[in-house]
């Protein structure tokens, strides 16, 4: 099995065509990266002669975040919430996500401003934070020194920020760029063996490197590795007392 991040990138390449097809949508575009795993809540379900109509219906409904279309059965399902239900995606069917895009008039010009989805406007980044073109919806800050996990977490929290939650491939690319492809803390830890890694916002972490989290260490019946880093676009569990680069994020 290929690693998840590879699959995500593959999907986004494969479905780029759809993006072009739909550019006419004024305020939205369909992004095919799988965003997170809040779970899908079905809001409508009907037979659509083609995928475009299915997408248009989703664009029409504010609460629609994701859609599923199957060419064979012509089934169109609209969902709120996001999911990484890869099992829904086959040759005949696709799961697409709707995300806000900036329109030209609302684009933040300064690198010290970001597009707040919540406020629907450009907001200033905090001092020492910067916005990067790979993710217009956040600002990032980099520490001078390497830190242990919980130091890094507090460091960001003191800045009213948090450790990165790079759910999309663009955000992972950005972290790779910012960290110069070195290991970097991300916003997830567990307290007990076998617990599921979740982001600080409560959603499941997906995109682990194959075989991870592995809890490597001298004693597999003890929690040896309880925090996550990102390295080369994939997540790993690791010991909290190691020291790495710290990046903080706000949105
Ligand atoms: C796009 O720009 C217009 C004009 O400034 C604004 O009214 C509208 O809210 C913007 N839409 C989005 C999604 O930012
Ligand atoms: C999160 O992961 C757990 C364990 O794998 C799973 O039971 C749960 O359904 C997942 N949550 C969502 C929203 O997918
Ligand atoms: C980034 O990493 C490369 C390869 O390890 C290294 O040669 C380069 O100096 C690093 N750049 C910075 C700004 O740290
Ligand atoms: C492994 O860890 C468990 C739980 O902490 C402990 O009970 C056990 O004695 C340890 N085994 C070894 C070989 O250290």
TrEMBL record:
Task: Give the highest taxon in the source lineage.
Answer: Eukaryota
CDD domains named in the record:
CLECT (cd00037)
**Which SMART domains does the record cross-reference, listed alphabetically?**
CLECT
Keyword line: Signal
Q: Which PROSITE patterns match?
A: C_TYPE_LECTIN_2
> Signal peptide position in this chain?
1-20
Q: Identify the residues that the record assigns to the C-type lectin domain, covering every copy.
A: 135-249
* A Pfam family recorded for this sequence: Lectin_C
The protein depicted here goes by the name C-type lectin domain-containing protein
Organism source for this protein?
Brachionus plicatilis (Marine rotifer)
Starting at the broadest rank, the lineage of the source organism is: Eukaryota, Metazoa, Spiralia, Gnathifera, Rotifera
């Amino acid at each position: 099995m290929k690693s998840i991040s590879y699959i995500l990138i593959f999907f986004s390449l494969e479905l780029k065509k759809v993006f072009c097809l739909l550019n006419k949508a004024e305020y939205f575009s369909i992004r095919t990266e799988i965003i997170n795993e809040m779970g899908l809540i079905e809001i409508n379900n009907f037979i659509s002669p083609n995928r475009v109509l299915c997408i248009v219906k989703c664009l029409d409904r504010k609460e629609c975040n994701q859609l599923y279309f199957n060419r064979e059965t012509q089934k169109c399902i609209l969902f709120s919430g996001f999911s990484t239900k890869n099992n829904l995606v086959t040759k005949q069917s696709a799961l697409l996500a709707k995300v806000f895009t900036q329109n030209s008039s609302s684009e933040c010009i300064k690198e010290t401003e970001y597009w707040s989805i919540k406020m629907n406007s450009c907001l200033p980044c905090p001092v020492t934070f910067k916005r990067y073109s790979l993710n217009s919806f956040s600002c990032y800050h980099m520490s001078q020194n390497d830190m242990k996990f919980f130091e890094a977490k507090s460091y960001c929290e003191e800045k009213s920020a948090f450790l990165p939650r790079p759910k999309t491939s663009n955000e992972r690319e950005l972290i790779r760029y910012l960290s110069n492809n070195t290991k970097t803390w991300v916003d997830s830890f567990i307290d007990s063996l076998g617990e599921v890694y979740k982001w600080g916002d409560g959603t499941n972490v997906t995109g682990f490197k194959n075989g991870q989290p592995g809890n490597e260490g001298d004693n597999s019946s003890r929690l040896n590795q309880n925090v996550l880093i990102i390295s080369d676009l994939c997540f790993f569990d690791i010991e909290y007392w190691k020291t790495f680069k710290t990046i903080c994020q706000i949105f």
